[in-house]
């Protein structure tokens, strides 16, 4: 079908060809946002995640787009075929994506070289980051910047098409960007990883280039005619040039408009982070909503057919943006409460996670949608105003886009580094509104027709006065405490906004800062036991009470275990309590601390009671830097590395749980060094917990697990076997400075400290491939699965499954057992240990009972011990059992056996198996009766008793019988599974690995979907591998 002839003799594209190119530009937008997300993640792997690093990445990205728009926009007007130029730009971008891995490695090498040559100074690190970003992403962003001018120059062949078609192209590209943002943030990266996602983006660009060339082959015969027709069109539709001052005013306004747009985006994202939380899904939805609004605005403008009035549209849109924000600003402080009302209506289960994200989108749209729709009108309108000659369309489009992009860069940097820190969220938004008003007046003043100029100025001024009047009345207060209260973590519905205000009234804010990296506050909570909190983006990241045992234990464990810890590296400051604990050891000669947020460094000075005023100690050097970045540029090796990041569901934090991060830390350990990792077991699913543990143990196969609080797990890992030296540990623990520090968390006794151990896997390689999935820098699955655990509010029960303190003494090889063999505890030690667990019973539910029994057994004349044991012991069937058992009835005898077994289980602890033999005698006597020979319950109970007593072969025989008998009974599948699991555990404990594998196949194979069963299978496979020397 030949192209239609338009006004002035210009050939118009056929609908089919136009549609093909529109789809191409949509796909180009998809790929562009995929790249933006991927490049940010790639570059964070070595330039880091500090606010400064993020600005450098953004500046390079925006700078490349601006430079490409200007340079290639001019080129688009001079080439014979702008469409061919567009195609080859797509090819260039696509090929670059396919080889990006090599370019990434080169950029990383350049960064490390530059940083080391500078002596690892702050200036050298910044220079290295800038160089690396320029080498890595400047070229593709330069090419991306030229795509709109090139395609616009080809598709727009009449002046009448400038307004609608530029708007349509901008809409399609932006709408594609929305799709690309969601595709990358919700599917591609978590399913296929960074490398495949980059290749997918490259494939999109290559396909777009091929389609563009296919369209071009049908038009090649018209290329020369196209150039001549453009001259004819320019003569026929020539417009009177704008005065030079008006052009300058419009161009400056376009640039400032871009800056104001980014001021809004930065402030809104920080606001919504406090409202919604800072998961990677939340950020994806914030960005997608912002771009979606822009795309809808440009689409609405594309429907306009009039060729005049674009100056008025530009100016009134600027005014409307500011006024709509001003209208909504008084309501922003209520957003946390509204989100609670919306999200609390959902059942917290995996099936509703998608609905929860939709609720997040609704809140984003509530804040951003109307203003961004209006913002989306401004840039296409400005291009129409500036473009007066079709022959210079490419240059005009490129130039306007370039200065707008340059403005967005300045606006984002200014808002992040000056606006938020100096003015706060509210002040930054108010400044942006004021700038919108000024822009509206400047733009409307350039309107040529006096009638429209006066009318539009009158409308803008009147609307501004009305809205400012409303704002002055409506904005009565800006309660920052509502925003920092972390309401998004509350799963229950808050009865009313008044109740929320009443709850936060107990918090006294002593420090607040909307910083470059995050919003930080320090709050004193008035309650029975006053507590000071360090709050980061609405989440308490450190406290002076609740998680203080964890903060302290992170330091004391490696400092006590290591033979001579002199150099220590700490990741994250928080309250600084861990630093203070390290400094209590005189042997610590040098302590490097890295922290992402400068504001946290400042806020930690308000926790001097727990951190020992670490900033005054000459042994400490604090670095405002990303730990991954710092470790890549330094050659220092450390005796101890302590990593205490916040929760992995927070965007960017998962990077310090990756295999590559652990490997980097391993490479910076001195011989015999220890790496300590804090894993928060709360707001975490079991599968996620085991994936994190599997990733850790793949690098540090020798490790111990500790449990300072119920919801926290501390891992002490090494690349070589290690064991405790109790004499050395006690000498260090008894030092006055150390005693003073551990007394704050009631851990002044070695016995109490050792009792916190969950498992000892430090004697032999203990890596288990539970799921065969590691969290990796290039496959960052943790960042995407952890938010689901946060949403559900789950607590990783798997941490309890590997806690051997739930087993009998025979099956809980712990350091505390070794210590009790070498050291006879005093009554005071046992009393203190019992009191510690009694006062913090949430650490381990049966620990008070265990230590009360141990105390009473060793000191039977101590009345306090006897009272403690009496209070700790559960109600038993001791008086009932003899009567029931004596009855001449099978059911009664079995009931007596069940009660005897249950009584034993209720009193069993990792320190005592008292009652096991008496229970075993009764059960075996009953089983000897032929009428009970095939009773699966008796076999199951006897099997567990013998397992607890270390009689593994005999236990396995009974458990195998129980599993087989259960399978023959309807409705006993769960019991069969339970018996099969214990059978495999028993065979593993007895060293019968091959038999365990066979038992698994025969008893548990059909239950493979169950998590506990899969964990057993993984243990068996690991033991088989070790047996085979793999």
Explained architecture:
With 1030 residues, the protein is of the alpha/beta class. It folds into five domains: 229 residues, Up-down Bundle (Growth Hormone, Chain: A), CATH 1.20.1250; 232 residues, Growth Hormone, Chain: A, CATH 1.20.1250; 50 residues, no CATH class; 260 residues, Rossmann fold (3-Layer(aba) Sandwich); 204 residues, Serine Threonine Protein Phosphatase 5, Tetratricopeptide repeat, CATH 1.25.40. The protein has 41 helices and 14 strands. It has an eight-stranded mixed β-sheet with strand order 9-8-7-10-11-13-12-14, sandwiched between helices. A four-stranded antiparallel β-sheet has the order 3-4-5-6. Strand 3 and strand 4 form a beta hairpin. Helix 10 packs parallel to helix 13 and helix 12 packs across helix 13. It starts with a strand and ends with a helix.
CATH level-4 homologous superfamily of the largest domain? Vaccinia Virus protein VP39
Q: Give me the CATH fold name of the largest domain.
A: Rossmann fold
Q: What percentage of the residues does DSSP assign to strands (E)?
A: 5-15%
Would you state the CATH class of the largest domain?
A: Alpha Beta
Number of strands: 14
Low-confidence stretches: 4-10, 221-230, 232-238
Q: Can you tell me the CATH architecture of the largest domain?
A: 3-Layer(aba) Sandwich
Total domain units: 5
| Structural class computed from helices and strand pairing | alpha/beta
Strand order of the largest sheet: 9-8-7-10-11-13-12-14
Number of helical stretches of at least 4 residues: 41
Distance between the termini: 67 Å
